Each structure stands twice: as structure tokens, then as C-alpha cells.
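Board notes, transcribed. Complex of a protein with NAP.
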Amino acid sequence: MDSSMMLANKQVVLKNYVEGYPKESDFEVRSSMISSHIPQRSKGLFVKNLYLACDPYMRHRMSHHISKDVPLLASFNPGFIKYTDVPLSYYAGILGMPGLAAYIGFNNLCSAKEGDVVYVSSAAGGVGQLVGQFAKMEGCYVVGSTSTDEKVHLLKSQLGFDDAFNYKQGNDLAGALKRHFPKGIDVYFENVGGNMLDEVLLHMNLNGRIAVSGMISQYNLKKPDGIHNLFCLISKRLRMEGFSELDFRHKVPEYLEFAIQLIREKKLLFVEDIAEGLENAASAFLVFIMGEMSESRSFKFQLTEKLKNLGENKKILCFKAIC
Ligand SMILES: NC(=O)c1ccc[n+]([C@@H]2O[C@H](COP(=O)([O-])OP(=O)(O)OC[C@H]3O[C@@H](n4cnc5c(N)ncnc54)[C@H](OP(=O)(O)O)[C@@H]3O)[C@@H](O)[C@H]2O)c1
């Protein structure tokens, strides 16, 4: 018996490849009808999306030269959703790609030990907030940077960072690093790149480690910033190494076991931004990931108010794709 039916399907479509900062007008929300029919004996699944993670890597896929070569979809096997006592949205955040990246990047690349001074940039983001907590579990002294005083407060008061600073305040990154790292940096977890990396190199200690997770400050630039202080790699005997969580998907079960226990014991926290409605996807992407660039004033206002009320930095975009 054919039990298929026609369903309304909403999509956010990229209208133009993006150069520089993406704009809301680069996206369009389209609606169409689709059939839920799955041919007999097919192993296909009909999937209803409830949550969509808004992640920085999406920006790469919007660029003409990169988007041709990337697979259409990289997703976690639904079989991984085996714990149901946590919010479903966690599978797009702490139990998803950002969580795995934080776990792999910190454990495989940082060689952190008790007493080490660890610096995490973009520390209030999905990856950074977890790296900071993992480093605290190892007994490190952890400092994070972010772009607002509210997020600085969040890092120190709720996420257990020893110290945090607003990298935009005073426009004096060198001074801020000097003040917050009087004894230098042993481990730098790099999420930002550009000028941040250049300045941090000067503050690294002998035999320091730099785990390169991402360089979000560079994603919208036509020409990436140059790095001038690479000689520090030699003079300070630094190890700097990049990674991609894509190479470690086999570690997902191990990571889930590790994280779920800590989440249940409330020893590992995760704060999320959740926007509702697929029509808000583009605005949410621009506000959450690329900074306050949204053209939609009302959306930005709603979000700002919501964040103020919650006192949290949340990051998952929630939408109902098929209704
Ligand atoms: N290697 C991997 O496998 C892997 C996997 C996932 C993510 N990543 C990378 O990890 C980094 C963090 O990802 P995430 O998921 O944690 O991101 P996220 O939660 O979406 O956070 C993005 C944050 O980046 C900061 N940011 C945006 N533009 C910036 C700029 N021009 N300069 C400095 N900071 C800027 C903003 O925070 P502030 O308000 O604090 O500035 C923004 O909220 C990204 O670079 C991403 O590409 C790597």
C-alpha cells in the first residue's frame, strides 16, 4: 500500500555566492510541496529536520571557489542519538560537531597538564566554551576572550574560566594579552586567526602548543591577513598544528560516553543560542556566527532582548523544516 503524502517543505536557498560579508539578501526562503513516497525495498529514510546547527564552516560553502568541491551534506548518523535525557538540540552542539572538535582539538593537540596557562579565543562559542571546561578539568589556568562584557561575565561566572576579557575593548590586544598573561601562555586554542594569532605568538612560552581549530576572523576577507611573528615557532620551540573533526568521526561514541556522563552530573555545561523559524535562518547565521551584521533590525532586537533575559550566549538555530 502506498502511504505517501504531499508535505509542505521550506528551504533557505543561497541566491548568490558570497564575497566578503554575507548579507540577508544573499538568502531566500522558498516553499514547495514534496512527496513523502519511499520506493518499496529502498533503504531510504524520510527525515524531518527539527534542529539545524548554524556553524562557521557554512560560510566556506557559500564561496564560489570552495563550494564546488565540498560534499553536499555532512551529518552525524542518527544512530548516535542514543541518549534521550538531554535536549535534542544538544546533538547539534555539545554532542555534535562542535563538541567533537573541542574534544579532539584539546585532547590530541594541546598536551595540557596541571598548572598550564591555557588561552581560548572565541571562548563563548560552541567549541571554545567546551575547550575551556575541558582545560579546567585538567587543572589548567584558563583564560578566554570574547566580544562583549556580558559574554565575559558568562565565561567567568558560569563556565568556570579563571579569567576572561573583551578583545574589542580599548582596541589594545597587545596590552590585554600582557595584562591577562603575566606568565605567558603554554597552550593556545586558536579559533580566530589573523591579528589575534600574530599577537599571541609573541606571548607564547617556551615549548608552547597551538591547536588550530579555526580562523573565523578571516572567513569574510578577500585576502587573508598576513602573520608576521612566525619566527616565534623557532625561537620558542612551539608546536602549532591544525585538525579537522571530520577525520575523527570514529571517536564519536567515545566522546558521547565521556560527555553524557559529565552533562548528567552537571560538570559540563553548554549554553546555546536558539532562534525559532526557518525564515530567521539567515539573520541568525549573521548574528550568531558573523557578529552583529543582521539587516533585520527587528530580528536583531528580539535576539538581543532574548539574550539579555536569558543571560546566556546560545548558538543553535532551531526550526521546523517540514510541517
Ligand atoms: N577544526 C574543526 O574541526 C572545527 C570544527 C568546528 C568549528 N571549528 C572552528 O572553531 C571556531 C569556533 O567555532 P564555533 O562553532 O565555536 O563557533 P560559534 O559558536 O558559531 O561562534 C562564532 C563566534 O566567533 C566569533 N567571531 C565572529 N567573527 C569574528 C571575528 N571577525 N573576529 C573574532 N571573533 C569572531 C564571535 O564570538 P565573539 O563574540 O566572542 O567574538 C562568534 O559568536 C571557528 O573558527 C570554526 O571554524 C573548527
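The pocket of NAP is lined by residues 55-57, 97-98, 101, 122, 124-128, 146-147, 151, 191-192, 213-217, 243-245, 288-291, 315 (CB under 6 Å). The radius of gyration is 21 Å.
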